[in-house]
Write the structure tokens for this entry.
Amino acid sequence: MKASRFFVSTLKEAPADAEVASHRLMTRAGMIKKLGTGIYTYMPMGLRVIRKVEAIVREEMDRAGAVELTMPVVQPAELWQETGRFEKMGPELLRIQDRHERDFVIQPTSEEVVTDIARQEFRSYKQLPKNFYQIQTKFRDERRPRFGLMRGREFIMKDAYSFDRNLEGAKASYQNMAQAYRRIFDRFGLTYRAVAADSGAIGGDLSEEFQVIAATGEDAIVYCADSDYAANMEKAEALAPTAARPAPAKALEKTPTPGKSTCADVAELLGMPLSSTVKSLVLATDKLDAKGEIVGSQVWLLLLRGDHDMNEIKVSKLPGLDQGFRFATTAEIDDHFGCKPGYLGPLNLKKPVKLVADREVAVMADWTTGANEVDFHMTGVNWSRDLPEPELVADIRNVVAGDLSPDGKGTLAIERGIEVGHVFVLGTKYSKDMNATFLDEGGKPQFLEMGCYGIGITRLPAAAIEQNHDERGIIWPEAIAPFVVVVCPIGMDRSADVKTAAEALYDQLKAAGVDVLLDDRGERPGAMFADWELIGVPHRIVISDRGLKEGQLEYQHRRDTEATKVPAGAAAEFILSRLGQ
Amino acid sequence: MKASRFFVSTLKEAPADAEVASHRLMTRAGMIKKLGTGIYTYMPMGLRVIRKVEAIVREEMDRAGAVELTMPVVQPAELWQETGRFEKMGPELLRIQDRHERDFVIQPTSEEVVTDIARQEFRSYKQLPKNFYQIQTKFRDERRPRFGLMRGREFIMKDAYSFDRNLEGAKASYQNMAQAYRRIFDRFGLTYRAVAADSGAIGGDLSEEFQVIAATGEDAIVYCADSDYAANMEKAEALAPTAARPAPAKALEKTPTPGKSTCADVAELLGMPLSSTVKSLVLATDKLDAKGEIVGSQVWLLLLRGDHDMNEIKVSKLPGLDQGFRFATTAEIDDHFGCKPGYLGPLNLKKPVKLVADREVAVMADWTTGANEVDFHMTGVNWSRDLPEPELVADIRNVVAGDLSPDGKGTLAIERGIEVGHVFVLGTKYSKDMNATFLDEGGKPQFLEMGCYGIGITRLPAAAIEQNHDERGIIWPEAIAPFVVVVCPIGMDRSADVKTAAEALYDQLKAAGVDVLLDDRGERPGAMFADWELIGVPHRIVISDRGLKEGQLEYQHRRDTEATKVPAGAAAEFILSRLGQ
């Protein structure tokens, strides 16, 4: 491509609303242009990146045996009503009416439509397994779209859906996709982790997120440096401590802690480690009658070590809390504890509560907790002696760095990631809602076992940039760079030698199948170099009159601190030798 | 591709609402699946065709120097309000509100957004000319979606927009695109015509439609078999007759024509050719004051030969009618003619009207027309003698077969076409509405001169089928066939020889870069052949045990009436020699 035939448009200033590097750099590099909140035009320079992402995804999906189709952007509400999502989904589902006032949605995803196709198409087990995918425009009316393509409203997603005869088959399809995803993310040339994620009602290891590692990532990722273990924060298990509970060494005491309503403040005041304090979280569950009216409530007390945080997903799976819970009201707290929050604890309750102790709390001795009296805490608290052993001990906290890895092979570390892919076994959730069946070998109808697999096509470039940039601009991995090589002639309009050499090199590289751009715009060297460093083309060759007189061109990789002189005659071979390294 | 890894799904029956061949065949061949009225999933077999259409279009757009970008599907209403189209467009513009009740539209086309980009990006004449294109999902909420992909609501369109410094430049950009379109449609392998179309306010030869010729086409196309002349019906000029008007030979007479209110009935009753009758069309124009209130009206009488039809586009360009017109009301007709429609004519008017005679009518002698009295016509009417020469003589009719070609090189013929492309000079319509300017060489702001260029990507396959099918199914041109060659082994599961030969041939063809499918589904021959004839793969090779024993395979092109025996060892070369013919 010659720059004069392409469209290069860079900006000195980033937009005021650009909070992260990828948003700033993609805008400045002329890759995206904001049309509305969370809605962007993919400008020519950005679209090249997106197309390369798409091509890699498509190749690997095809290789994995998935079959491409394209489902409509505008989808009739009827199907979404069959699964209840038309009502259940919040305003992020963009609902519209056509000229006849019939309801439609703009697809945020396509489980309903693909399940509708499946129930029409799959008559026999002989047609299974099958995996359909599409690379298509999606819309989610996010409440707070931000970070450019990272959390936009309109975006491009690759979504795939597998259909199997049974859960075993679904798991095999899932593993096949998970493998394809590894190949895809390997090819992108990004540092990423496939992390175990919560798979909801299905259970088991049937959900993984693909996270591009970046300091600005919205997600916390847990991994073990000494093993393959990796999970997202929701999923990562905190093992039960191996050490036994120490014997009580202190007496139970009511200690004044005036105005100290947090564990941290209490620990500081009393000169003890935060890890010897226990915090109280009060939840409630409601009992409903057949009409959905609340007919009774239950208050729960969760005990966590002062330096630990509650993990909502883990809590939501506890027996008794797995049908939904809420934080207790002030009235409920007062009713059961006789005290306001900040000084709550498991001793001296006014009314009984259901108690859940985190695994760590269950093995503590001589701990400190609220006294259920304002400005007082209990110290030297011990299980069995001062209160009964906990009814329920469970993992209800987020892991922290240094925790033992669940696979027993070392300790856990935590880093930040950007979710760019997700693979998931859905089971029969959608096929049951939509009565999507096939006939098994005995001729009996069975619900299709499904899986779904997403990649955020337009989020990927943003994640790549968060991971790969410096103060001058983007540093693209070769596989998804808008151009792989840029040839920068200096004074092409004045020097016939420069022009000839530049065009010859450009032709040579093109003939070798290299995605090369010749910058024939006639910009001055400073502006030209700044443009390509901002845009982030990995390989640059500078051709100047002075260099040519010495028979030299200058090569520089975007990560190099300085240029390498290359004999003019061997420039093409030199570049080819650098590609793919 | 192997069929077992792909998705082949054919139907015996076409859907009840499928009125045209392409709709029936695409549905039966498993290429599209209806999701809602005018909304279709592109199933794997159909998507392959669409992707091939896209690839050809993209290649030729790039070759022509256009630059690809992608504009959002969901577009803020503000831009559409700037051009007034948000209000002016009818309900085919799908309007939506987001969660904050802000107005948006689903793009039916993207002039507003691209002009918004242009006004931000183009600062200097040095950046021009430039042409941006996209291949993107569109939505038009058609009142009567029908014919499958031919007139759907959601569809894929390639839309390109050129920006130039002046009209001369815009014309050059237009010619460049028109040429690219010819290359594109040549490559599709379809019989088509580029026909001159009306270019509205711009004038000149600055609009062409690309029409795929098909008996079921919605458009009438006019062409000259002896020259390059081709135009759509709206545009095609009817030349002024070369012969002079004959001298009057008959006396003016009021002739009873009881109950005969059409020219055809009158001609039959009086035993004269239809071409000697003249029909009266009564139009009206309104005079508006500054507030848009009607302050007066003018009635027009248009005279056309009895066998000719009025051309609305031509009429809408006449001086006095070019600001809009309507058909006259019954009251206005009665007021001016003193008679009801069916017997109207230019003689014996109650009040004067503005008279326009078609060029053919102006040279007629002894003609017959309504007497402005029920059940009577005037015969032997002659200009000058019986009524004044017409104030305005103009071309206001549709041409008919046999008319002289406007280029003077023969006579006109008429055929049916399906519009699949349109190139058009827009001028400054959008740039003025949206104040999109650039600085010219003198540093003065000038409005961008624009052109727009569309191809109906998803309509094209439907048009191709209307032109190329038989009673057994589709006959794809090679360039856009879902697969170019299908290898059909008979009894692959029983015969190791057949399996080996089929896979060897498949591998050979694949290695040669042929888009080949191996039907390894194990269907019986009859069902297998019927599937591929329905789907319309151009080249088929059948491999059977019996044939192999004789060292023969059977080749058949989809258009061949019978198979050709080919030596098994030379099958690949044979097929390769048949490709692209």
In short: Chain B touches chain A through 47 residues (CB under 8 Å).
